[in-house]
Structures are given as structure tokens and as C-alpha cells.
Amino acid sequence: MHRDRSPARLRVTAAVTALATVGAILAGPPAGAAGRPDASGPVVTRAALDPALVTGRGARVAFLEQEAENATTNGEVIGPDRRAYTLPSEASGRRAVKLRAGQYVEFVLPAAANAITVRYSIPDAPGGGGITAPLDVAANGRHLRTMTLTSQYSWLYNQYPFTNDPDADLLHPDWWITECSCVPAETTPYPSIQKPFRPSHFYDEERLLLGRTHRAGEKIRLTMPQGSTAAWTVIDLLDSELVGPPRVRLRAANVLAFGADPTGRRDAAPAIERAIVAAKRAKLPVYLPPGTYQVNRHIAVDDVTIEGAGNWYTVVRGREVALPTPAPDGSVHTGVGFYGRDAAEGGSRNVHLSGFAVLGDVRERIDTDQVNAIGGAFSDSTFHGLHIRHTKVGIWLDGPMRNVRITGNIIVDQIADAVNFHTGVTDSLIAENFVRNTGDDGLALWSESTANARNVIDRNTVQSPVLANGIAIYGGTDNTVSRNLIADPVREGSALHVGARFGAEPFDGYLRISDNTTARAGTYELNWNIGLGAIWLYALDRSIDARIEVTGDAYLDNTYNAIMLVSEWGVKDLYAIDGVHFRDVRVDGTGTSVVSARTAGSASFANVDARHVGAVGVNNCGTFRFTPAGSEFRLTDLGGNDGGWLADWLLPNTLTCDDRPPVVPPPPPAGW
After folding, report:
1. Each residue of 475-515: pLDDT tens digit?
2. CB neighbourhood size of 134 (10 A)
3. How far from 453 is each of 427, 498, 499, 546, CA to CA, in Å?
4. What does each C-alpha distance from 238 to 44, 96, 110, 207, 631 come to in angstroms?
5. By three-state DSSP, how is residue 280 classified?
6. pTM for this structure?
7. 3-state class of 19 per DSSP?
């Protein structure tokens, strides 16, 4: 599952911008005007947006989100800041609240709730590896619980694939880096690199059942206690939820009857496997009643249904275990996971997993490791109502396979992707999933070797991918990405990505991207030293010439461009991006342009409305040949493009190339 993320060296035509200037651009306006540190009532958001802006888009979830910066606090509101490697940049909405000992943030419940999720950050240990620290939870002034926070699953450093060591030297001194605008190994004298180098992946989250139902209007206060082991605690947000009672399944193979320990003290894997055998023989589901079940390796699943009492009540938790010798697939660790048979062995079929949590123990990225919550090959299978945290990838499926439905799951705090359809996955669905804080693409279709085809990614929410993209499509045939909400990508990617790269099969047939909303996307690509688009198409391995239709999207509060089409410098005269169609699109705020074209090819635009555009509407560089005939990228105006961004003088291929135009931070998005 390795994808080489070594920096591509895209040629630029202007001098490298000083990093201090870049920082000022990305930081945005001061926090004081935007925050509500003295708010007394509940402010409910979705991806830090007014819910009215995202009606009908994103996952329908059971919880309500409240940003800490909108709550009452005597702490410090930090941000906004969109620079990588800062605490605000990885926070939802790019702002959070930083507490010192004795300080608090207090939320007013917008609806009855008996459970909360706190997204937070605390410092790493000085030498790496993380610490734990307390957080007091009170309701209406009465202490309820003390949560234990940890940074053992956060704080990565350095270059891909990263390290837990804050004192590590460059992992790849032969890679170009923005910090010195150089390749350190080829530079004399060798540049001085500040340590820790590129800290990231700051946040984690913790869930808590409150013990009883608290009414709307009651106040939940989170306090960093005196004497905490942490120097500070950052609170990003609170999700509150009314969790129903545990689900009981009487007619089932109950794992307790086969010796499973629900306290988590003893290994439950053998008992679960015995229950699976009995359930298949009797044609019954396997039932995991409330409890914590210790599983430190893969559970093989085929033709079986496994149900929990609900993901707040049934937890399958495991340690990461070093293997005595590497496995044939290159893994050097194993850990908790439910795995189907390999596709080469026919894969698994008729597997249905639902209603439990999978909590892993993955603290570093090792691409060869199979330490995912769900892996292998499945057909005619469903994964629903799971809560997955601290694994490498939530659900990584290696095809070929068909008819997989991944619905209604919460996948957070991953070292890499949340869901990846890898190789020949067809006629499948990823829908109504909530994803937050992935270390790579949130949701991906990767057509390596065999095309993914006729898949749908619909009504998911993807927030704060630390690296790469919210939703990425790498090749494939007749796929659809619709009604998703993607917010706050941080670096080396953006919200929506269409990439001919990573050895993917060509795009063929159609790719339909419709009715999605992105927020605060269009990141700064640190390898290229330029800003990306909220949606960006990238031709690296081959041309992109399938029918790509982008319809009904809304790109809100874009850091740089809304739309970007780009070829790698080394292949710019070989590959193009042709025949992309944009229709009924709304662009509300760009730091730079609506469209940035750095490739040969063409695109058409109909009813694409834009406002608050920071630079020229179309930044057209083509292939950087700057011929008298104009750019090698042509734009077709099909009418109805309001806002003045697609002026006549830009058509069809006027050169307007500004490699790094000045950035004008847009105002907050509002109703159209």
C-alpha cells in the first residue's frame, strides 16, 4: 500500500517566495474579530460552517458539532492560520482554544446528550512518544469525570513517511525542501534545518459517556486542572450526542459463551474465532455484547455477520505487535483488524460487520504494515456503524472485488487513509461516513493495475486531512463523487483531487463530481511552493482525457485557487488535461484565482458564478512556452458565468501567467 510521496519538482518561473511572506499570507486575519470567546448560547456548526451553507451535503450524523472558539472560555483563542505545522492549521475551522492550568472552555448543549467527543491536542514528550494528561469534565458546575488525554498517537515529524523522533535529522536529504529552497545533500554549505522538523498530526479525540442524559441548555465545562502533566491543552471542538441503549441480539453466537473476556484483560481473539465457526455452522450472526475485547492480530472473516451492541458500547481494542520475522507481504507488525481472504485466493464474500468500535495502537507510518481495521478482499459485503480509530488505514481493500457497501461509519485519527478502494473494486458504495484527522487521503479510489469502476462516493464528511486530499480519484472508469462535504486540508493535497499518478490505470468513460461543498481548501503545495485549487486535476503519469463533469459544486473560502489543472513539469509537453466540463458551480472567495491552468488542454464553463476573487479570474500559464499564439490551455465559455471572472479578454487562451500571485484572504462564506 506504498504510494511514493517524494516531492515532484515542478519548475517555477518566479523567484521563490520567502517563507516569512508565505506565513503571513496563510495566517489570515487576527482571531479577535472572528471568535466568540464570550458567547453564552450554543453555536452549532458543520465543518465549522453555518449548517445552512451545507444543506443536503455531507454525512448525516447523530452528533452536533460545536467549535471551542465559539464557546465561553478564559483561555486563548488561537488562529486562524493555514500554514502547515501549526496547531491552528490542523484545527477544524483553523481555530481552537488553548488552555493553561486552571483555564476552561464551556459549551452550552444544543440538544439533550449523554455522550461527548472532545477533539484536543496536548504536547509531545520532549524525546517523542507522547504523554498523558487529565481533563476535567463538569456539567452545570458539578464534576462528572476526569478524561485521560494522550499524545501517544499524534506528533509526527520530518519527511514522508515521518518519524516519532523530534530530534531526527532529515529522512531524505536528497529531496528538495521549501525551507532552504534547495536539495540539502546538493547544497554547500549544508543548510541548517530547525528541529523538530515539520511537526504535524497534532490532534486526537476521546469519547465519554456522561452517565446520564443532560438537557439542552445545560453547560459542559472542560477544564485543564492544576498540576496537569501537560504544559497546555488545546480544545478544538466538542461533539455531543444522545446515545441510545445497547442493542441486544438474542439469536446469535454470543462471544461470551465461547470464553471471550469483556473486560479487555485477556486475549479475546480465540473466543471470537470459535464463535465465528459456530455461527457459520448454525447460520447465525456473531454477537459482541457490551464490553472491551482485546484482539492483537487479524481475525479472518468470510461468509459471516458480526454485530456489536453499538460502537459506544462494544469495543475491540488491540496492541500493535512486532512480528519475529517480516511477513511475506512485508509487514513487520500486526494488530487488531478484521481481514478477508486475499483476492488471489478468491477473496471473502458475504461479510457484514456493524455496531462496534475498533481501536488500534498504530503510532508510526510503515507502508508495508497490514495494521488496518479492515483489510483484504470482500465482495457482496457491508461495513456499517463502526467507529475506527488509531489504525493505519480504517478500511483498505485490495481487489479485484465487487458490491461492497461502506456506510455510516466514523473513522478518525488515522496514520494514513480512512478508506481506500485499491485495485479493481467495482459497483461499490462509500456513503454517509464521517472522517476526521487522516494522515493521508480521507477517501480514495486507487486504480493501480486494474481499474476501479462504477463506484459511488456519496454524502460523506471529510475534515482536516493532515496530508494529501479529502477525496482522491486515481484513474478508473465511470465513478461518481457526489454530495460530500470536505473541509480544512492542510498540505500536499486539497479537498477534491483527480490524479493520473501512482501508477493508476487511465481515466475512462466518465468521472462525475457533483453537488459537493469544500471549505478552506486550496492548500499550499510545499514541494512545488505554489497554491493548489480546492479541486485539482493532475497529469503526471499520462493525459487525462475521459469525460470529467463537475456539476453543482460549491467551493467556499478557498485559500488559493478554486480550480486547478496542472501537469508535471517534466511531462508537460507529453500530457494534457482535456475536455473537463464545469457547470452550475459556485465559488465564494478565493485567495487568488478561480481557475489556475498549468497544462495543455481545455475546459468548458457554464453557469459558474464567483465572488470575492482575490486575483485575475483565470491564471493561465499553459505549458510555460509563452507562445505568440497564447496558452496551450483553452477555455470555452458556455454562458451564464457570473461575477466577471471569465472576461472576454481571457478567452480562449490568453496568457495571464503569474506564478505566485498576491493572496487576498476572502471574507467568510455566506448564503448566495
Report:
1. 999 999 999 999 999 999 999 999 999 999 999 999 999 99
2. 17
3. 7, 15, 15, 13
4. 10, 11, 11, 10, 49
5. helix
6. 0.95
7. helix
